[in-house]
Design brief:
This protein is α/β, with parallel strands linked by helices. It contains ten helices and 13 strands. The longest helix has 19 residues.
Length: about 280
Amino acid sequence: MERSLGLMCGAGLLPARMAAEARRQGWRVIAFAFGQVSGIDAHADRFIPSRFAELGPVLETLRTEGVSATLFAGTFRLADAVRLHQADTATVKIAETAGSRAERALTGAVLSTLGALGIDVLDQRPFLGDWLAPAGCWSERRPTDVEWNDVREGLRLAKSFADAGIGQTVVVKHGVIAAVEALEGTTAAIRRGGELAGAGAIAAKAVSRENDYRFDVPAIGPETIDAAADAGVAVVAIEAGRVLVVDRETLVRRADVAGLAVVGVDGAEAGNAGWSGSPT
């Protein structure tokens, strides 16, 4: 019997990619588009424009289509639903169940609501193919020994801050923290840190050990490299296997043009203060 998957689509390239992978795995894909979603039509059995303010029809369609699992893809924040004024009963109920706008509370409410319908929320990683960051140096330029010292310290700090729920990205120069990501996101944090540190800083991105990949896949893309180059950052280092890389070919090409080094570091090493190696 064919399995039906409810694909909750946010902005970006991921929904189409994940829909294609889901169909390859044998799923019948029912795509709910929250905002502008490109390229999804060719990979979905049904395509349904949807709104956060009207989750009732979404839940009803999941039920009538016999959906057994859902998958979140693309960029959107569950907190957006809570801020809407003319929300329907289903949306209001989810917000009331959450009790706050905190992402953890909202994801818990979503899990509870879908669980009551017998629907699982799936980990996104099995649907990402080869888009998760590989270990190693991807760019033509490799970090210098001095830069590797900052990479090690930056990844250790980024892992620590991510575990504490503060942010996933730090900018470091000569062992000194120039910026820690907060609400502004990775790209803005890199711009801020690079401007404060001056040329030669490194930007490091790591992921909390408790990150819930059902709802959140930390990512970088070509715009990350653009921000780093504009801010004078010399190296971008990310945790391999746990960070999504959007359009890696373009990302690496832009890094090479800008003379940046880009490296992926194994997660165990990223969180190990005593790590002394460098990826090959």
